Amino acid sequence: MFTGIVEELGEVTAVEILDDASRFRLRGPVVTQGAQHGDSIAVNGVCLTVVEHEGDEFTADVMAETLDRSSLGALTVGSRVNLERPMAVGERLGGHIVQGHVDGTGAVIERKPSENWEIVKISLPADLSRYVVEKGSITVDGISLTVVDAGPDFFTVSLIPTTLDLTTLGHKQAGDPVNLEVDVIAKYVERLLGARGEQPVALPDTQGSGR
C-alpha cells in the first residue's frame, strides 16, 4: 500500500527485453535504503518487486500484462521515474490510499502555467471517467493529486512548485503518457451497490479547495 507521496525522482539505468517481460534497473538512493529481495517499490505508480539490489540501484521484472496496461513499456535508459516505498503501519497518510495497480493510461493534453502553480489537463479513458469527481483523489504516475475539473474524457490538476520540481510531472509535455489509478474506494462502492441492485447517487456539484 502506498500514499502517492513521491519520495524521489529516480532514473532508469538499464532495460533488458525478455521473451514476455522486461527487466529494469533503476537508480534511487532513497528508496534502496534497506531494500531487500522481494520488497515492493512503486515506479511511476506501478507496484514492482525488487529482484536484485546493489548500492543505490535495484532491478525489477515487469510482465507483459503490466507493460500493456501501463506506460512502463515506453521507458528507456535515462528516463526519470517517480519512486515510493510502501507506507509503514503507523505512519501518516499524506496522500490517499494507493494500491500501485494501474487502471489505465492517459496523456498530457496541455499545460497552463501561472505565477505560483500550473494547471495540467490529462486525457481520461471513458471507462474510468465515472470514478473521477471534482475535488476527489486520483493517482497520476504515482502522485496523489486532487481533481480540479472532471470531464467525460479528461480531468485537470493543479500542481504546486514542489510537485513540479520533485516529480516527473514537472517534465511531461503534451502527448506524453501517464499512468492512472482511480480511487479504490469508488470502485468498491460501485461493486457493492451493483450487487444490491442499487444505482449510485449522483453527487451535487460543489466547490471546495484542492490539495
From TrEMBL:
Each Lumazine-binding repeat occupies one of these ranges, namely 1-96, 97-193
Tell me the function of this protein: Catalyzes the dismutation of two molecules of 6,7-dimethyl-8-ribityllumazine, resulting in the formation of riboflavin and 5-amino-6-(D-ribitylamino)uracil.
Asked if the keyword Transferase belongs to this entry, the reply reads: yes
Name this protein carries in UniProt: Riboflavin synthase
Annotated SUPFAM superfamilies: Riboflavin synthase domain-like
Q: List residues of the Lumazine-binding domain.
A: 1-96, 97-193
Q: Which UniProt keywords apply?
A: Repeat, Riboflavin biosynthesis, Transferase
**InterPro entries cross-referenced by the UniProt entry:** ATP_synth_asu-like_sf, Lumazine-bd, Lumazine-bd_dom, Riboflavin_synthase-like_b-brl
Assembly behavior: Homotrimer.
Molecular functions (GO terms): riboflavin synthase activity
Reaction(s) catalysed by this chain, per the record, are:
2 6,7-dimethyl-8-(1-D-ribityl)lumazine + H(+) = 5-amino-6-(D-ribitylamino)uracil + riboflavin
Kindly give the Pfam families that the UniProt entry links to this protein: Lum_binding (PF00677)
User: Which EC number applies?
Assistant: 2.5.1.9
GO terms for biological process, alphabetical: riboflavin biosynthetic process
Signal peptide span:
none
Q: Does the keyword Transferase apply?
A: yes
Q: Which domain of life is it from?
A: Bacteria
Q: What class of enzyme is it?
A: transferase
Question: What PANTHER family does the database record attribute to this sequence?
Answer: RIBOFLAVIN SYNTHASE, RIBOFLAVIN SYNTHASE ALPHA CHAIN
Pathway membership, UniProt: Cofactor biosynthesis; riboflavin biosynthesis; riboflavin from 2-hydroxy-3-oxobutyl phosphate and 5-amino-6-(D-ribitylamino)uracil: step 2/2
